[in-house]
């Protein structure tokens, strides 16, 4: 089945003029949502029947194809599958899923920011005193690494929510970027995305170009919160606020939207995740997911 066939098979959205507005049960929009849920599940099953090059139970051999330094805190590492043949299948990932990368005796989970049939692109946070992440930053090209996965139970289906509000700090942007990219690349998805990201300084923001490109889409708003004053800089299309993401900011962002139609995504360190989860419950936003 090609992409055109898939789109033609999708349940058509009812015209608002066909709704009488009298609270009929079932409403045509409720019926459409049920049909859309079934269609999304069927589409997911068809995809899962294809052979995945990756395996959650065993490591597959990749090599370092390229390393790109972004700033003092982040690098992007490109991995390519070693000695691939057609029978190996292709890489299949749901946006937001992660893999485990193993080098010698060190293993760490990473959420790929992009991938092809046989490559993975990883955003790596390099810590000043982090022995292993510094080794990874300075690793030689063509070095072999092992990868297993994918892992994670987050699944996104188009148009289930009217708004997705993302709150993240640091490398948490890696979980959000492929989700946002998948939505803006889908012409049938009308979901609005509100990215709220925290970093130490504008200089330390990874994926600047990618965030600016996302912000060009009609359904994406991107706000970056900076905790350290630096030289005033601007990023086209991206709002910059010199303040830490806190409860007041969280409330001011989410209270504009109905909890029933809003999904909140959270990704940061343990303290950040716990705070955001607590605030989500406090303000009765029960549709939330924490990337841990």
UniProtKB/TrEMBL annotation:
SUPFAM superfamilies: Ferredoxin reductase-like, C-terminal NADP-linked domain (SSF52343), Riboflavin synthase domain-like (SSF63380)
A family per Pfam: FAD_binding_6
Residues covered by the FAD-binding FR-type domain: 57-157
Keyword Flavoprotein: yes
GO molecular-function terms, A-Z: oxidoreductase activity
InterPro entries per record: CBR-like (IPR001834), Cbr1-like_FAD-bd_dom (IPR008333), FAD-bd_FR_type (IPR017927), FNR_nucleotide-bd (IPR039261), Oxidoreductase-like_N (IPR019180), OxRdtase_FAD/NAD-bd (IPR001433), Riboflavin_synthase-like_b-brl (IPR017938)
Natural source organism: Microctonus hyperodae (Parasitoid wasp)
Gene3D superfamilies per UniProt: Nucleotide-binding domain of ferredoxin-NADP reductase (FNR) module (3.40.50.80), Translation factors (2.40.30.10)
Protein name according to UniProt: FAD-binding FR-type domain-containing protein
Cofactor: FAD
Origin: domain of life: Eukaryota
